[in-house]
Design a protein that fits this description.
Layout lengths: L2 H15 L5 H17 L5 E7 L11 E10 L2 E9 L11 E4 L3 E5 L7 E4 L8 H5 L4 E2 L22 E4 L10 H11 L9 H11 L2 H7 L3 E2 L2 H4 L2
Antiparallel strand pairs: 1-2, 1-9, 2-3, 4-5, 5-6, 6-8, 7-8
C-alpha cells in the first residue's frame, strides 16, 4: 500500500467515519508521550496486531498490541504498548521501564507504582532509602517447596521498593487545573499543540499497521502536518 493510500485511509479513520481512532488512539497517545520523553526522540517505526474479538460489530479494534522502535544515542530500543477490552481491569495501567539494574512501574495510581532491584545488581539502593527517595517493601519471594517438590531453578526474586507518598487528587484533576489556569493566563500549558501533535501522530498509524499486518517506517510525512 502506498503512502498516499495509507494517508487517505488515515483521514477516513480519523475524520470522516469517527472522531476517534478507537481505544488505541484514545489511550495510546499518553504512552507515546511518555516514550518520547524517556527516549528524547520520536519513534522510527511501528508494527501492530489487533482484532474485533469482543465488540464484533464495532468499527475499530477492541484489542491492539503494538511495538514502536526508537533510535537513541545509546542504541536501538523498543517500546511495547497494548490496549485490551474494557471488560477487565485486572492488569491495571502503568508504564514499565526495564533495565539491567532494575525495573520501575509508574502509574497515576500508587497501587500500581513499584520499583524492583535486580538480584544481580552491584549497586546498593540503601542510600536512596535512607534519603527518603524509596521505601523498602516486604520481600515477596516464592515459597519454598516440600520434600516432594519437583526440582526447579528460577531467577532470584527481585527486591521490591515503593515510592513514598501518592497523588492527593483524582488522576485527571491536575491536567484540568492546568488547562483552566492556562485559559485564565495563570499558567502555561504543560502540553501545547506542538507537544500534543508529537504524541498523537505516531499512534494513528497503529490501526493501519494492524489492519494491513505490516511494519510502517515513519517519515516526516507520517509525523507532521
Amino acid at each position: 500500500m502506498s503512502l498516499d493510500d495509507m494517508r487517505h485511509r488515515f483521514l477516513n479513520w480519523r475524520f470522516y467515519k469517527d472522531l476517534s481512532g478507537g481505544p488505541i488512539s484514545d489511550l495510546g497517545a499518553h504512552q507515546i508521550d511518555i516514550f518520547n520523553w524517556f527516549f528524547g526522540t520520536a519513534p522510527t517505526s511501528v508494527m501492530a496486531s489487533g482484532g474485533r474479538n469482543f465488540f464484533k460489530t464495532r468499527e475499530h479494534f477492541d484489542n491492539v498490541m503494538c511495538v514502536f522502535e526508537y533510535d537513541t544515542p545509546a542504541g536501538g530500543a523498543r517500546a511495547f504498548y497494548q490496549v485490551l477490552t474494557t471488560t477487565s481491569a485486572g492488569g491495571g495501567y502503568y508504564e514499565s521501564f526495564m533495565g539491567s539494574e532494575g525495573t520501575i512501574n509508574i502509574s497515576e495510581r500508587s497501587a500500581y507504582t513499584n520499583i524492583y532491584r535486580e538480584a544481580g545488581s552491584k549497586r546498593s539502593w540503601d542510600p536512596m532509602v535512607s534519603r527518603g527517595y524509596l521505601k523498602k517493601s516486604a520481600d515477596g519471594g516464592p515459597a519454598s517447596g516440600g520434600s516432594d517438590a519437583i526440582a526447579s531453578y528460577e531467577s532470584a526474586a527481585p527486591e521490591a521498593y515503593a515510592l513514598p507518598g501518592s497523588l492527593n487528587k483524582p488522576p485527571h484533576q491536575p491536567h484540568l487545573e492546568n488547562f483552566f489556569n492556562a485559559i485564565l493566563g495563570k499558567e502555561k500549558l504543560n502540553c501545547d499543540a506542538r507537544h500534543a501533535l508529537e504524541s498523537e501522530a505516531p499512534i494513528y498509524w497503529v490501526n493501519p499497521a494492524a489492519e494491513n499486518r505490516e511494519t510502517i517506517t515513519f517519515t516526516k510525512d507520517h509525523l507532521h502536518i
